Amino acid sequence: MIVCVLAAWGLPIWCKPIDENTARKVAGEVLMRSAEKQKDADATQWKGEDLQPLKLVYKSSSKTMEGRRESADAEIVYFYVFVTADNSGFVIVSGDDRAAPVLGYSLSNGFSVENMPENAAWWLGEYAKQIAYAIENNLEQTQEVRQQWERYLKEVDNNEKIGGK
Fold it and tell me: What is the pLDDT of residue 19?
């Protein structure tokens, strides 16, 4: 019984925040996969570490979320939004591995924080609230979500090992 209690107590420790660099790599992998599916000639630009075309345009965090009090604590990131160099596509990547890695993406639409429709702002706000809830309540990562993160990060590692492009 003690082993079960210790194992259950230790499970949430495995959940971790996702840093910007890791999120950028996942975003690049998403764009590469999607472009390859569409047989896009530019798919190779997203491989490996050549991710400069991806620009971070928004970061939802404990310091940017409405209704959250500003604190001296470290910033907790809920998600990142990356756009392509010409803003013809975007990827939204979770800031914590308790949530699915990819929250949304498009290869044919840009992303503008300043001109975001109200419904999109609400949708992203709900994502932030759900991820904040999972973090604050120390929820466990599901097996399905763990497998999604492992799949993305394994493919990113493989692309880096073979030299990217």
Answer: 95
Q: Which two tokens stand for residue 15?
A: 């959940």
Nearest to 124 by CA among 84, 82, 65: 65
Distance CA 96, CA 67 (A): 20
In a 10 Å sphere around its CB, with 0-12 CB exposed, 13-18 middle and 19+ buried, how is residue 140 labelled? middle
- DSSP code string of 71-120: -SSPP-EEEEEEE-TTSS-EEEEESBTTS-SEEEEESS----STT--HHH
Which 8-state DSSP code applies to residue 124?
Answer: H
Q: How many separate helices (H) and strands (E) can be counted in the chain?
A: 4, 4
CA distance 103 to 159: 22
* Separation CA 104–CA 130 (nearest Å): 15
pLDDT tens per residue across all 165 residues of the chain: 343 333 344 444 456 899 999 999 999 999 888 877 766 545 555 444 444 579 999 999 998 875 555 555 789 999 999 999 888 899 999 999 999 999 999 988 889 999 999 999 999 999 999 999 999 999 999 999 999 999 998 877 666 654 444
Closest of 94, 96, 76, 75 to residue 16, by C-alpha: 96
